Amino acid sequence: MRMTKFLVRTLRDDPADADVDSHRLLVRAGYIRKVAAGVYSWLPLGQRVLRKVEQIVRDEMDATGAQELTLPIAQPLELWEKSGRDKTYGPLMFRLEDRKETGFCLAPTAEEVITSTVANELSSYRDLPMNLYQINWKYRDELRPRFGLLRAREFLMKDAYSFHTDVEDLRVTYKEMYDAYHKIFTRCGLTFRPVEGEAGEIGGDINHEFMAVAAVGEDDFVWCKSCDYAANVEVAKRQPAQAMPSENESQQQPTRVHTPDMPGIAAVAQHLGESEDVLLKSFAFDADGEMGLALVPGDREVNEFALARAIAPKKLRVFDDNDFAAHPELPKGYIGPHHPSVAVVVADPSIRADHPWVTGANEVDHHITDMWCDRDFTVGIWADIASIQSGDECPQCGKALSVDRGIEVGQVFEIGTKYSTALGATFVDADGVSHPMVMGCYGVGISRTVAAITEEHHDDKGIAWPASVAPFDVHLVALAGKGAAAEEVRTAADALYRDLRAHGIDVLYDDRDASPGVKFADADLIGIPVQLTVGAKGLARGVVERKLRASGERDDIAADGVVAAIR
User: pTM, whole model, 2 decimals?
Assistant: First the structure.
């Protein structure tokens, strides 16, 4: 493709609303343009990358035997009312009415539509298993769309749905999808980890999130570099703390100390000359109308997801300023585990340690030292509720864990019969008995994957695409200039362009009347893996200069051997 005929306009300045590198570079290099908050046009360069990622996904889905279809973007709201997710999604869902005032929504996902479709098409155990997928646009009315393609209101997604007779059969497909996702993200050139995750609005018991490692990621995840353990911070575990019973008779008794205007851990630790990990953090919450405290060491935070699981089936509600205002007997920042109003105490196993604790004294401006678990306060529920930190021991191998940030680019779910029951997707078994189909769900954020690749593969000059997803194979730059050799350079570059294309090599040909500086800057910004430069000096020596965009490595290729070298 000649750049003089191609819709590509690079920008010298960063867009004012770009907070992350992928957003900044994809706009500057002419891949996308903003239409509205969280909504983008994909220009020809961007469309080529999007289709490359899409084809990788399609290749790996088809290899598993999954079948592609297309489901409507405008979906009857009635289907979502049957599953109850019209209320769950709430304002995230774009809603509309037709001229007959029938409710519709723009698809945020497609479990309801695919389940109702399968319910009308399949009815026997002989029809199952069945795995169907689509690659289609999704819509979510994000309150604060940000980070360009990473938190958009319109995004391209591959969503697959499998239907089974039982959980054992589902897990065969689940493993196939899990393995296919490894191949997809490896082919896309991403550094990623599959982690145990929370199901969120989709539902289901078992699921894995595929996290692309990136400093700008919105999700923290925990992983071990010595084994295959990885998990979202919401469900991550560490080696269990060892219980350390103490000889209470030989220990000092609790001492009340004055800590004026010190409701925070750091200030108290400094004032008393103690490390933060020997202070006890008391986290107040409501459990179905009863007051509870969650106890963790002062250098940790409470994992609220783990705490909610620990007190289930009671519902967790974290205390806020209004709760403390309504309960003046609870001095915020000075609450101790021995407070008389506390109905339930949940503690991390690390609280049963071989040292005393500094705790709140249940009185403003006061703390208590030398407080021992089981002697001075008791615990009702023991659970792993302390946040994980880098350096904690891996629950599988005992080596150090690492906490990093990542971009969720895919997720696989076992969702069971939630949707098949609600939408009547049943099958008849060999004995003539009807059962709800058991379902799995598997998503890849294709447009988000483009952003994740950009986040990983760029430098201070621009994007450096992996060859598998690059919009072109080669960026050919002609430096014709204005001298006597200008026509010779143009003729040689045109011939090379035709030759490369004739051999199936996709070329972006910079045939513009622009300076070498502009052409080289644009080539680095756009980020095609191989740059070829045809200039008068090189032709005089019978060579074309080659540059590898990712490494910056340069060499000369004989002018009559370029095609062979590139192939």
Answer: 0.83
